[in-house]
Amino acid sequence: MAEQMRLGLIGAGRIGRVHAANLAQRVPGARLVAVADVYGDAARALAGEYGLDAYDDHRRLLERADIDAVVVCSSTDTHAQMITEAAQAGKHIFCEKPIALDLVRIDDALAAVEQAGVTLQVGFNRRFDPGFAAARQAVIEGKVGRPEMVRITSRDPAPPPISYVKVSGGIFMDMTIHDFDMARFLLGEDVVEVSAAGAVLVDPAIGEAGDIDTAIITLRYASGALGVIENSRRAVYGYDQRVEVFGSAGMVCTANETEHSAVLSDAQGVHGPLPLYFFLQRYEAAYIAEMQAFIKSISEGTPPVVSGLEGRAPVVMGHAAWKSYREGRPVRLSEIEDKRS
Amino acid sequence: MAEQMRLGLIGAGRIGRVHAANLAQRVPGARLVAVADVYGDAARALAGEYGLDAYDDHRRLLERADIDAVVVCSSTDTHAQMITEAAQAGKHIFCEKPIALDLVRIDDALAAVEQAGVTLQVGFNRRFDPGFAAARQAVIEGKVGRPEMVRITSRDPAPPPISYVKVSGGIFMDMTIHDFDMARFLLGEDVVEVSAAGAVLVDPAIGEAGDIDTAIITLRYASGALGVIENSRRAVYGYDQRVEVFGSAGMVCTANETEHSAVLSDAQGVHGPLPLYFFLQRYEAAYIAEMQAFIKSISEGTPPVVSGLEGRAPVVMGHAAWKSYREGRPVRLSEIEDKRS
Amino acid sequence: MAEQMRLGLIGAGRIGRVHAANLAQRVPGARLVAVADVYGDAARALAGEYGLDAYDDHRRLLERADIDAVVVCSSTDTHAQMITEAAQAGKHIFCEKPIALDLVRIDDALAAVEQAGVTLQVGFNRRFDPGFAAARQAVIEGKVGRPEMVRITSRDPAPPPISYVKVSGGIFMDMTIHDFDMARFLLGEDVVEVSAAGAVLVDPAIGEAGDIDTAIITLRYASGALGVIENSRRAVYGYDQRVEVFGSAGMVCTANETEHSAVLSDAQGVHGPLPLYFFLQRYEAAYIAEMQAFIKSISEGTPPVVSGLEGRAPVVMGHAAWKSYREGRPVRLSEIEDKRS
Amino acid sequence: MAEQMRLGLIGAGRIGRVHAANLAQRVPGARLVAVADVYGDAARALAGEYGLDAYDDHRRLLERADIDAVVVCSSTDTHAQMITEAAQAGKHIFCEKPIALDLVRIDDALAAVEQAGVTLQVGFNRRFDPGFAAARQAVIEGKVGRPEMVRITSRDPAPPPISYVKVSGGIFMDMTIHDFDMARFLLGEDVVEVSAAGAVLVDPAIGEAGDIDTAIITLRYASGALGVIENSRRAVYGYDQRVEVFGSAGMVCTANETEHSAVLSDAQGVHGPLPLYFFLQRYEAAYIAEMQAFIKSISEGTPPVVSGLEGRAPVVMGHAAWKSYREGRPVRLSEIEDKRS
Fold it and tell me: What are the percentages of helix, strand and coil residues in chain B, rounded to 5?
């Protein structure tokens, strides 16, 4: 590819700034040229840092013929709309997860993408984590044989503010959604049933907000394999992110990442470093790799690694998890789909 | 304690031989003097090795006034009867797990023990594993804070013969029962609800025998904490036995034991030794420690570490797991108890 | 610091390109504005990538009044001259290691730096590796007590070309020099005696070039502590870089870095990922951190973390190691210094 | 082998008691029948425990025709004499290390053994440690290719009493001697040169007794490979016993053994268990395995795993190490041998 892909960024918040920094330096073949944010000051500040054009209306950005693709990092409730508008403007789209919490809105956005024939990649960045990718690769290469059991341990270092909890869609939509995607990614197959147990153990205020903070979710895959997800909103030792795939020929598992490997042995014990605490540090390599993959997919005309349908499936699982939790029984994903039709 | 405790062994099979060897050498204060087995030849062979008296009728052994305690290693379906008879003969009792699969039989045996005022310790040996005991100790010392999540990974290296599967009571009674005990041991509290998902993935013959070979069981504790047990009848890399307790102040977890620590780095990767394969090797230290604890408990008149009621609870959980699996819903343990009354 | 430091790069080779990339994005407060290389094409290519001015004569770069500091990445035999000229031009200097192999040339360059009153930092980047820095920090905090023994394992993945070996100054000057610096860094004290054993085991051509490829060097510190360095020019499993400090209150040690943590257990063993192979990947964080420290040191007027004298000491150790190897006896560093006077 | 080997024990001290306990239970094919100790009470106490005959004169034991072999655990200065007398009495001999500190005495004893045609195994038990044996096996199988570098880390948890230090032969004869044997064992080849650096860092009283407590010894093998031994008399974190063999095709290394694998992660760090502290616990498996090998070697008529000459070589290395330390130069083992002739 001789020439560079030209990108616009919609949303200049925390995650938008991460993508901007990565695009500026670590994604060959990409050039970020503009940013839009309803908070014009945020857009202008970011533009100043990276030499971009700034807009407070994303439509100005979409109108530019010299922009090939957009990176959507605006608030979750605007994702579906941004996808639709960007698709209609003929732009390729990278969109942060989730597309929407409402399946009708997701389907409408995906229809717009399909009609426009543009590429849409959803930001399930963990698929690009070197450890998880290596686990997936081991499964693909048959090193664990036929997969029989999956485990995903996913614990945040600390809960988000209650104000955020209230609008987040709840733990299954906000936090577990990453793990639902990971569950599908690791085996490369669909989950057909979800059974969720939950509790409020970390902070009563989370319960008062109608959410839970601790959960164990059992999964049943189409092939008959079983899976389990362990979630907590607070792990005092840091961001706990591990997976394990067990099968007929073996097991692959990952450990937490640390900042270094120095271990102290003294008269009391053997003391190692804590897991990385902050998700942007933990998944730094993944954020870069997903953007590289997006650029590669557009420039080579290959399907995106995380398609719109891949982005939709975890939302269905989130709805099923809430239904299972509330009704105290396993819920098949088909129940969620049937309700729609 | 100046004098030695004199013991009789009932059952000269595989596990009986393990206890005989340990009692002969590694349990100070204990002296094994007699063995009984319905297969008289087995009793006599073992007696020859250790200089014991041999009987083919356990009642001859129970009649001996010079025997303080018995170790019951006969087949599971005779445990309750042996406990009852030994209690009536005034002997202290160590009995392999489970006491029985039927709760009425268990309760009758426990009543006999109580009436006789003898000590009964049930053979949930894993509580004495150094790693699991250290995890429990960390919980007791408050090092993980308030426990919120427990995980027990328990995978056999290879499935038992189908002939055994058919009479075993099924995976939850035969294999998970150890994990049910471990779940209670790690937190020191009762489980109130069980939800079991299962599958036949290892060997169709296990399914044809009415059993399953792969299971994920979610637990809810009295305190609100959650737990999960992962079971498989076949792990090609060896006996996979790990636990993890997560709480408000931290996490404690154990790794598999290996025969040595030698690791090879070559051009292909970094290669370490497999987990121990055979349960007698994996739990060698635990078998010795449980017998030492039994002798100590009798000689010092302290309550046994694994009482009759502790031995009963996992059986209730096993019944609840089967009911949950069959009915596809979480089952409270009180449903099992209520059914009895 | 409101304004940015403006830097010029001398030398557009492999390591120069690394610093250019880091300065472009990951060193806040620094702005690379020009590059000089005797190979003008190399300078211009790099200039094109980062929007720099290009020169084929470094003196043009040094003449620019708007440049505050230079990064010297030219060939080793020009380092001392570049330092001298840059100091005379009033520029702060970051210089790749070693300053020179000849102590007279080093001392002349350091005298020029002192006279000019500029800051000189030498590129012993490994001090900035997170693991080694954490080991050093543990020593500083007294966590190992009084240090008694140091070990540095340092093995390259593959030997350099023989053409390079011939002009490299030999293993002690080219490879061990990093470990000599690490030995001084870890304890924060001087080494007073060196005893080197060596062999040609990897490639006879290295021996024919007058060099060795395998070495064990014993160190004696001023405090009486002992140290050992293990060197090989070829580790098939990757770049092997580990340190250990042992003392009266404990031990701190580091492990090799890997690209991910995924571990496969199968019927043959437990297989983990190899150490990182390439030094630029292994020390990526260290290259960034040393440049950040350089900028910080200039802008805050604090002494450089790796001063000219710190850069000189490992060269003395290299001479002592060669002398020890050739004469088959321990050599005190004072013998090297005395020879000079 | 249908019948049991009958053994006598000479020396009822700490290590004698270890062998007695192992022979009583864990060495099939062996039967300990008698014990002799110049402290008759010690002999009688041990005899009482295991049902043995007791003597205070070892010659009474050697006279017994029904004894096939003896285990010599008397004080080091009597080993050579005991070997000679036992050989003359036609007994096979297991003797604790070292045979003697004086090479003439060793050679006289080995001559007596050869003349009598009995089997002599020397108690270098560490060869039987599962981890070290696995490392050796990897070398034998060519998994590390041609060996190029060996490292042995060997640190005692705490120094012995000064009274013992004074009669021990010094660190190289008392402690390093095990490591000298390990160095030869791991590669299966001779060491030809030793270079020792030492210091008194742990306790000045050790220095006043004419000994050192900290040492780094460099080895040169016949093949040209290099080795290094790290010794300290005090590691506060426990008994530190690790080896590493590096070669053209890879590296094998071992880690310390721990009592369990439970690891705590809390807000401060990740905390694991300490290495085993006591050598009898650390090498428990090795003590059993060496005795099993001794019995097997006699009963099958195969050469002993650790022959008299294998037992002699580390003593030569000890003499060379002391000479190297005192003269401040590498010493070839041939210098020690030449001095004798």
Answer: 45, 25, 35
What's the one-letter identity of residue C195?
A: S
CATH number of the domain at A195, please: 3.30.360.10
Record the pTM: 0.96
Q: Which residue of D has its CA nearest to A276?
A: D269
Indicate which CATH number applies to the domain containing D22. 3.40.50.720
A71 and A142 in a single domain? The answer is no
CB of A225 less than 8 A from some CB of B: yes
- Between the alpha carbon of residue A161 and those of residues A18, A158, A236, the distances in Å are 21, 9, 16
Contact flag A236-D266 (C-beta cutoff 8 Å): yes
Q: How far apart (Å, rounded) are the C-alpha atoms in residues C87 and C81?
A: 10
As a whole number of angstroms, the distance between CA D234 and CA D232 comes to: 5
Average pLDDT value for residue range A283-307: 96
> Which residues of chain D make contact with B257, given a CB cutoff of 8 A?
261
Structure tokens at B36: 């009984």
Domain edge (last residue) among C91, C118, C145: C118
**Domain tally, chain A:** 2
pLDDT tens column, D13-67:
999 999 999 998 889 899 999 999 999 999 999 999 999 999 999 999 999 999 9
**pLDDT tens digits for D133-187?**
999 999 999 999 999 999 999 999 999 999 999 999 999 999 999 999 999 999 9
Residue D133 neighbours by CB under 8 Å, 6+ apart: B260, D127
Mean pLDDT of B98-102: 95
Give the three-class secondary structure for A262: coil
Residues of C in contact with A25 (CB under 8 A): 21, 24-26
Query: ipTM above 0.85?
Result: yes
Out of B236, B266, B267, name the one closest to residue C266 (CB).
B236
Which among B244, B249, B209, B211 has a CA at the least distance from the CA of B230?
A: B244
Q: Which helix (H) or strand (E) holds A256?
A: none
Domain boundary among A69, A85, A118: A118
Look at A263 and C253 and tell me if their CB atoms are within 8 Å. Answer: yes
A3 contacts: CB under 8 Å, gap ≥ 6? none
Pair B146, B273 in one domain: yes
Which residues on adjacent β-strands are paired with residue A220? Answer: A193, A226
Give the residue numbers spanning the domain of C261: 127-285+314-340
Contact between residue D74 and residue D18 where contact means Cβ atoms under 8 Å apart: no
C-alpha to C-alpha distances, B199 to A221, A333, B116, B172, B232, nearest whole angstrom: 11, 19, 44, 12, 10
Task: Examine the domain organization and report whether B11 and B57 are in the same domain.
Answer: yes
pLDDT on residue B1: 38
Within a domain: residue C60? yes
Q: Does B91 share its domain with B180? A: no
Q: What share of chain A is helix, strand, coil (3-state, %, to 5)?
A: 45, 25, 35
Tokens of B176: 């998970």
Within a 13 Å sphere around the CA of A174, how many CA atoms are in the beta-carbon half? Answer: 21
User: Is D14 part of any domain?
Assistant: yes
- In sequence order, which residues have a C-beta less than 8 Å from that of residue A291 and are 6 or more positions away? A19, A22, A23, A27, A30, A71, A94
Q: How many residues does chain A have?
A: 341
Kindly provide the residue ranges of all beta strands, DSSP E only, lying in chain C, ordered along the sequence: 5-10, 30-36, 53-55, 69-72, 92-95, 120-122, 147-155, 191-199, 214-221, 226-232, 240-247, 250-253, 263-266, 270-272, 331-332
Find the residue in D nearest to A273 (Cα): D269
Question: Is residue D4 helix, strand or coil?
Answer: coil
Task: Report the C-alpha gap between C55 and C37 in whole angstroms.
Answer: 6
CA–CA separation, A309 vs B85, rounded Å?
Answer: 66
- Cβ-defined contact of D249 to B262 (cutoff 8 Å): no
Residues D197 and D331 in one domain: yes
Question: D124 CB contacts (<8 Å, ≥6 apart)?
Answer: D97, D178, D181, D182, D185, D290, D306, D310, D311, D314
